[in-house]
Design brief:
Length: 233
């Protein structure tokens, strides 16, 4: 009985896990290709977006951007991940916990690898101190990964998910905006980061859903029971 309780319980995160698997793979591959071919200098759209952010100073927007910054790093990020992980642990949702842990571990790993490969300079007028390469945005990647993971974990597949996908998109876009408003990343950095986080999460959850259930505790198909001994005549 204890072994059955420890068993990975099947969970349906998506209706078509193979489609999610390939979608995640394509998104990751697209970001890798962007990293290989994007110039270290900002694109024209990056420059225009940065100028637009500089032309809209606002105390309220600045405070909002700082809130996003706090949620995407350090204690704010740790508390969020711990809360979700603890909730899954208490509910014994082992597959959900495995998928969530994989997504949140692989996303920053992928971000750091790409940062090392490209080493793109950050915008010159950053409002906060930041180190490392500008591409891709780790905050945007974290937001995309976490927002998608929460939808997959706490809503059921179906058309009613549309509202929650919209909320996830809004949260991810908000984090991406905050990084450009604070002049910490170019627009292409945050878009690529968000796509990377979403891709890694789709891949993690699809693979976890496709893990076959352990059948060692089930009787094998076609197995026969040993013959019952007959009493002597």
């Amino acid at each position: 009985m204890a072994r059955l309780e420890r068993e990975l319980r099947p969970e349906q995160f998506v209706r078509r896990p193979k489609v999610a698997l390939w979608t995640g793979t394509v998104l990751i591959a697209a970001v890798v290709l962007i990293a290989l071919f994007i110039p270290t200098q900002p694109l024209a759209i990056d420059q225009r977006w940065s100028e637009a952010m500089s032309d809209t100073p606002s105390a309220a927007l600045h405070h909002l951007a700082l809130i996003f910054n706090y949620l995407g790093r350090g204690l704010g990020r740790a508390l969020t991940l711990a809360a979700v992980g603890l909730a899954l642990l208490l509910k014994k949702r082992w597959r959900g916990l495995l998928a969530f842990a994989a997504a949140e571990a692989l996303t920053p790993l992928a971000v750091n690898v790409l940062k090392h490969i490209l080493d793109r300079p950050r915008p010159p007028n950053a409002m906060l101190h930041a180190t490392g390469s500008s591409f891709p945005s780790g905050h945007a990647a974290y937001a995309g990964a976490t927002a998608v993971a929460l939808v997959l974990l706490y809503t059921r597949p179906g058309s009613h998910r549309l509202i929650w996908w919209s909320v996830a998109a809004l949260a991810t876009a908000g984090m991406a905006w905050s990084r450009t408003y604070l002049q910490l990343h170019w627009l292409s950095d945050v878009v690529s980061g968000a796509l990377l986080g979403i891709g890694v999460t789709l891949l993690s959850f699809a693979l976890t859903q496709l893990i076959p259930r352990d059948s060692s505790d089930k009787p094998r198909t076609g197995s026969k029971l040993p013959p019952t001994p007959q009493a002597g005549n």
